[in-house]
Amino acid sequence: MTITATVQPIHLIVSPECLPALHKLRIHTLLDLLHYYPRDHVTYHGVTIPEARAGDQVMITGKIQQHRILTPKNGRLTVQSWIVTDKTENAIRVTQFHHGSSYQSEQWRTEQHQFYRAGRTAIVTGKVRQDDYTRALTIEATEVKVADLAGKPAMTKDNLIQPIYALTKGLNAETLRDCIRAALDYSELTDPLPKKLRQHYDLMELSQAIAHIHFPSNPQTLSAARHRLVFDEFFYLQLRLLKRRAALKQVQREALSTPTTLLKQFYIALPFKLTGAQQRVIDEILSDLAKPYPMNRLVQGDVGAGKTVVAVAAILAAIQSGYQAALMAPTEVLAEQHFHKIAQWFKSLQLPVALLTGSTPTAQRRVIHANLRSGQLPLLIGTHALIQKAIQFDRLGLVVIDEQHRFGVQQRLKLQQKGNHPHVLSMTATPISRTLALTLHGDLDVSQIDQLPPGRKPVLTRVLTEKQRHQVKRVMQRNLALHRQVYVILPLVEQSEKSDLQSAIAAHQTYQQQFSQYRVGLLHGRMSAEEKQSAIAQFRDHQTHILVSTTVIEVGVDIPNATVIVVEHAERFGLSQLHQLRGRVGRGNAQSYCLLMNTSTSDEARDRLKVLEQTQNGFVLAEVDMQLRGTGEVLGTAQAGLPKFALADLINDAGVLEQARKAAELVMQRGSCLQCWNDLVAEIHRRDRHKLDDGSTLN
Ligand code: ADP
Ligand code: MG
């Protein structure tokens, strides 16, 4: 029987007892079973009995001499044992343990005895053990198969590579392997990838790849199979992202006129000249806005590259064309800062702007609501407060999301839905590697501000120990004397907010004592929004000289007169996060300093921090961070939308991702025959469904 439609439910080939366990693993169809890849493989070396050594993983082929089943009276553990002799005429005992009551039925015992009749040839895989007292060797079997009967393992001359699966209660390894073997025998897979593409990228055919990921005949076929399936994981994701990008371009909206007046006035009012990179990115954005479909662009630029001005240019273009704009930032501190700066610029352009956060008083809120609805307010800046139901725009044409990685997919979407397909501009300073960028933002157009404003000097970075604290004091004294300002950062451990608070207050006191001729401000997460804003404002207005702060300061804060940042317990931070923190200084033309206090005694921690002394390149740091801590850690939980891969690894399989992206682009550009396209889309949907089942989303 060949079941071509692999969406067939598994009960066709699987015994009913296993169904609940398989369902628990989200295996419902033959195809699910085939795509349930092993988490690892073990290689059993084919040996003769005299060659077997304690501890080895071996495969032995020999004749069954004796077969026994022992079921201890009250026990739930059933032991099966065989005596097997091979061509060398030597004998060895083989044992296998079975847990659970299904192994205690008379029927099962009878079947087993029938199957393992003396004289039959058995292929045994397992680990060799030596009895502590008798010194006798036995094989603890993972599988005992009878040669020449159905279900015999794929075998090579010498070795057998066996899959290891993630299991669940009620399903043992041997049963699952048998189910998968049966699924392989009974199904006929058609490969949705066009043959040409497969050939071009030298990919194993799908049914081959599936067969060999489970039961590889040798390490080479295993690696080729894995390569193909990793390619698939990336390819279908990229195709999905590109498809979404193409779909957006089908949405019709009014193209914005090429605006000039407001922008020109803005440029004149700016106290500096735009960098080439800023100008280029602004041009890219303006050309997006002039198209008859919505923009969906991500602006990447290292900390301090000057993303805010670029956003404002886009906002002015939208306003000039008669639209409203919204700018959303992840923290009140940052929203307030944007408002502060942009309000100044807008004043000279005679444009109103409002700030809306969780702490905006009700009366003010009402005025904002009314002015938004009437269209009198062209720009609203704020936090998540912007996505509340009550907020309605008259003509929202542009949405800007600052530090977009801090927002969830839903939050971003909610803001967009306040307009009729508005243009979307996302900004991020998180320098992520190209592989991550493709995975996360493969559906966006990306612009890079790859140049810092002129005159910026690299921030002098030093990793110091407690013994070297006098250096901290010296650097601080020198800069304070030059009327510059200092940040002191304390780590925040979420589990114990209280003790953090205490440590922030204690540090504040210590610094105040040490620098008694200066004023020291304090900023921490437990303060009300108002208190926070006032702490920042005092520091910005130079009423305080030193600001002791927990990491609330991390994102986007821009106070160019601050030239020193001291990070206490720097070893508790990730490299990318430290790089963000370092970005709080070096924002003007004066030499700035980043002093990382390392309280850990491990060499590893020190070496990791030392990387910051060597490079100012956020991308390099992100890459190192990713390799040291894994992608999830680096992105944090806030980074929604990072898909889970069954096999692929974003670091080690980066090359495959590049290929998969190219292949997906080719398919999108060239188009393919309708049937091929339908097959590809069906595969995207199949993968989505499975992902969604999983509770995760592909956003
Ligand atoms: P980020 O990219 O981190 O958001 P900001 O937009 O906050 O950076 O800009 C950092 C600082 O650099 C701000 O003080 C800003 O006014 C200033 N700045 C931006 N562009 C330029 C430029 N072309 N020349 C000089 N200073 C600039
Ligand atoms: Mg910024």
- Classify the secondary structure makeup into a structural class: alpha/beta
- Please work out how many helical segments DSSP would assign: 22
Sequence stretches where pLDDT stays below 50 over 5 or more residues: 1-5, 150-156, 634-640, 692-699
Spatial sequence of strands, sheet with the most strands: 10-11-9-12-13-8-14
- The separation of the N and C termini measures 40 Å
Question: Rg to the nearest angstrom?
Answer: 32 Å
Ligand species: adenosine-5'-diphosphate, magnesium ion
Question: What do the pLDDT scores average to?
Answer: 87
The largest sheet, given as strand count, sense and whether it forms a barrel, is: 7 strands, parallel
The CATH homologous superfamily of the domain at 260-449: P-loop containing nucleotide triphosphate hydrolases
CATH class of the domain at 260-449: Alpha Beta
Work out the number of β strands: 20
Overall spatial form: elongated
Query: Helical amount among residues, as a percent range?
Result: 40-55%
In CATH, the architecture of the domain at 260-449 is: 3-Layer(aba) Sandwich
How much beta, percentage-wise? 15-25%
CATH topology of the domain at 260-449: Rossmann fold
